[in-house]
Amino acid sequence: MIDCGEGSQIQMARFHVGYRHLDSIFISHMHGDHVLGLPGLMSTFCLLGRTADLNIIGPEGLGDFVDFINKTFCKEKTYKVNFFPVLDDCVSKPVFEDKTTEVYAIPLRHRIQCYGYLFREKANKPHIIREMTDFYGIPYYAYNSIKDGKPWTTEDGEIVPAERLTRPAEPPRAYAYISDTAPSHVVAENVVNVDLLYHEATFGKDNIKRAEETYHTTAAQAAEIATSCHVHRLIIGHFSSRYKDETPLLEEAQAIFPNTVLAEEGKTYTI
User: HEC states along 169-208?
Assistant: First the structure.
């Protein structure tokens, strides 16, 4: 989960998103619409008897808030919370990683300390070509070493290179989530060629002065970033409540970067 505003649990129930698979929460900044859903969610985990660890990643000040939640709402907590603060070297090394993904934080330009997140898939090992391994009579236990690039030696002494027995894996994917921010060169430097970029587009270009005052981005500016960084697809979101119809914002962005879509509640976007 990225950010946890009020109503997060209602939305999870509405769109049938289960609690069981939620193990990490990334918080961009300490404004209420991005963090005030944490007390209720963490309390619900206690009521459900959760035992799996919960990882929470965000600005250093978030740690005090998490401690407050634990002491106030989760006195009989059944699970462990691991808090990972975002530090100054967040762009150069992951702030969090698991078996498949590395996550980097990107400093943003907002009214308070704020971060975006870059999720980069770790390189996959090549795929075994079963026709070739069957032809050479290679046992299953040798597949991992072949995927690691080691050759196979037959009983006759023939050395079969791993490249003959495998085909390249799909290239690793990357997704960037850019929350509240004014246009930033740091963002541009770190989202180059990502497969999918979510970028806030709070205002249209007709409200660019208001965007500057509140450290937000217009739809046109988000599209310009996507264009200059050669991203494959752009999702714009975080719209001001003044827009009852976001179509003009979509059209503004698509005029610059055609492969732009609106962030829609409940919709799934495939990377």
Answer: CCCCCEEEEECCCECCHHHHHHCCCCCEEEEECCECHHHH
> For residue range 51-94, what is the model confidence (pLDDT) as tens digits?
999 999 999 999 999 999 999 999 888 899 999 999 877 777 89
In the structure, what pLDDT confidence band is assigned to residue 247 with cuts at 50, 70 and 90?
Answer: very high
Residues 161 and 159: their CA atoms lie apart, in Å, by 6
Cα–Cα distance measured from residue 221 to residue 252, given in angstroms and rounded to the nearest whole number:
10
Average pLDDT, the chain: 94
Helical (H) or strand (E) element with 90: none
Of 92, 72, 70, 100, the residue nearest 83 (C-alpha): 70
126-171 pLDDT, tens digit per residue, is 999 999 999 999 999 999 999 999 999 998 899 999 999 999 999 9
Number of C-beta neighbours around residue 13 at 10 A:
11
Active site members: 33
Residue 75 main-chain phi, psi, to 5 deg: -65, -30
Q: The whole model's pTM is what?
A: 0.87
Query: First-to-last CA distance in the chain?
Result: 16
Q: State the CB neighbour count (10 A cutoff) for residue 117.
A: 25
130 and 163 Cβ atoms separated by less than 8 Å: no
- Residue 191: count other Cβ atoms within 10 Å of its Cβ: 25
